[in-house]
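Retro notes
What went well: the complex prediction finally ran end to end.
Inputs used:
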Amino acid sequence: MPRRLLAVLPILTLALATACGRTDGSAGGGTVIIATAADPEPLLPPTRTNVTGRLASELLFDPLVEIGPELNPFGDAGFVPRLAERWTWSADSLAITFTLDPDARWHDGTPVTARDVVTGLAVIRDPANGSAVAGDVTEIDSITAPDARTAVVYFSARSAEQFYAASLVYPLPAHLVDTIPSGALATSAYAQRPIGSGPYRLVAREPKVRLELAAVEDHYRGRPGPDRIALVVAPDPATGIAKVWAEEADVWDLLPPPEVAAAAAHPQVRLVRAAGWDYNFIAFNYRDPRDTARAHPILADRAMRRALTMGLDRTGLVRALFDSLARPLLGPFVRAQYTADTTIAALAFDTVAAGRLLDSLGWTGRDRAGIRLRGGRPLRLRALVPAPSANRVRASVVVQEQWRRLGVDLVIDKLEAQAFGAARDGGTFDVIFGGWGTTPSVRGLRSTWGSRARPGWGRQNSGQYADAAFDSLVAAGLAAPDPAATRRLIRAAYARVVDDAAAIWLYEPVPVSAVHGRFALPAWRPEAWWRTLPGWRLADGATPLPRDARPTAP
Amino acid sequence: MARAVLSRLLQGTLVVLGVVAICFTLIRLAPGDPFFRALDEATVPAAQRDAQRAAFGYDRPIPEQFVRFVTNAARGELGWSHSRGEPVARALATTVPASALLIAVAALLAFGVGIPLGAWMGWHAERPAARWLDRGALLLLSVPDYVLALLAVMGPALAWRLFPVGGMRTEFGPTGAAGLLDVARHLALPALTLALPIGAVVARLQRAAMRTVRDADFVRTARATGASEARVARRHALRSALVPVLAYAGVHLATALGGVVVIERIFAWPGMGRLLYEGVLSRDYPLVAGGVLVAAVGAVVGTMLADLALRWADPRQRGFE
């Protein structure tokens, strides 16, 4: 072998390993302490119920394949191997055969097999487990395991995001899970101390207090960087953030705007800004809150919804509440999504036109407080606002004042999370200050804005917006064979819902995370930053903290 | 005496059952259920949620659920905590000691300092120092506990780095004797924050009581025996003046758990107050029922202990059996 080729071989090997998502942390990478307000609830990927649960479960478990840094959910080009080292499509594109990595092992040393993939889907599909992923893998018909290393995923129909759906299935150890009776998974010993396949294994868990993970030394993708990761629960965000300022913790995700400015006083902390994946809106209720069988007496009228939209200065609201830490929302999507349409036509802020529209609807009278009247009835709307969301509470107050000037009386009903959820699901509101997290995929549209008339659609569509044309466009977009067609159809669906004024699109926050400066970070993953954790290293020249001392082997 | 104790035990059992029954019912009548997901998370279909409710028997009538709870609790089974993913008994076993430590240290500080300080203030009520101390106590009383706690986090913990910000231990910190010292460092701020307003109440109560008994006939008689002022104050006046403080101690013990909720939340102290608060927010029915049961038993026992202390301090109490 030529000497020059020998010289570049290590570089090539490293490049290949990086391309496959492998990490090499043999030098050790210290300890990462993540402060969080929420407990990582269920540690199993199919049953996790919050973002912290997703963080922990995705460090403990590997999927078959993972969406790549381009976050392109179409086809398979943008995906990187995980438990599956390669895959092939069937001639009719209705089946994908995944070949598992022969080195992949569960943390108890048992090899990962195709049977584990079958178990992963079975857990999602079992209604007793209440998996929220079930609605996202509906196009998967079944999974079979012809041999230990081969799993075949069959689809009921072709779509641009078929491969993405397969990436949502996390194999679970059949030798541990298959013996658990249906409905008993949540309370099983396995769910409390899961054995996973990810770069970190569970060391200790004190519910609502802390979770400790340790690097898997012989992980099939290479040893991850940090030796240990701890999630420390601080229920009061001010305490959690103070822990980062005081170097008791290393990471706080999603700093509130006032704390971003406070970070300047703590030079050891670096701020990481990323593209936002959450959006917030005011959804109108299309159904009468007193009798959901009837149309809403005020808001079912498109002209009314448009008037209320035009009567709100969204740009001013975003600037007042967030300064540069949020952007006005353009529709039911965030700018980071592949299908985002930044040229979409939005209703402009125009109080004169809004007033004229309200006049034309008969809301011409005024009471002593300046609230519009029609037939002696005031134009009064009840807004449902979640008390745990400080941003939405503040936004509701601004909206209340702006609409008051228009002659609309907004009654704010601020409720704790459970009561908010019950009122939202029961439809007992006129408008709701909502927020959704998005993913690279647009399949969430079926649930958030799709009509409930379609089976499995509209579960999160609490305002019950229903438009057959919108549904058809979304369905066609998801079934389209190529990304360009999907983008065109989904953008048409966006235009439709925005033109209908189904909601007032408020803002998409720009997430800012605080990270201790002693770590050198790889490229940030805005939709799931924790996926970068295995690549974290103690920066050259950085002063380690006492907790960074390499732990002794158990 | 035995009859009195037996009677109090019976009353206490009825109180505990009543409190648990009320909380058991109210939490089930509140909107939401244990299977609600995080605020903006996708919900599971209604049928799936109903299946989950049925699996745990939450679809049965409330009285039936209560009878089942009491029967199981009598066998030591408190059920499964949905929000913590562990048995309720284990959740209580880990959090009760943490709260007990916090409450005990805070009570020691509050009563240990408040009683002698208040007694001194009452005995020397005319001295300017006593008056200033009284105003200081009033000031401490006026500051809401969460403000005090946040100030403690921002000042001594964050700005001056004298104490840790929160938690019970340093992550990956020392073990053994050094570990105990580490727990003590973490305990200092929450215990002080909890103790300060209680200590202020105790000091003011003690001051007023001491001032009242200072000129009482029995104190004058004690003085007439030639005993020193300090001995009169300590041996004769203080014991009598302790009665209102001990009565307050009983109330304090009964309500201590409610008082630690804010402190445990702000200092991320893994105690039972926080456990119950989070249990209520997440509609964790078994956790709330089990937690309330333990808290109610604690309150009843605490009140009984305070009553016994009162009987020791005030012989008149024994005459009313």
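What we learned: DSSP finds 16 helices and 26 strands in chain A.
What to try next: split runs per interface for comparison.
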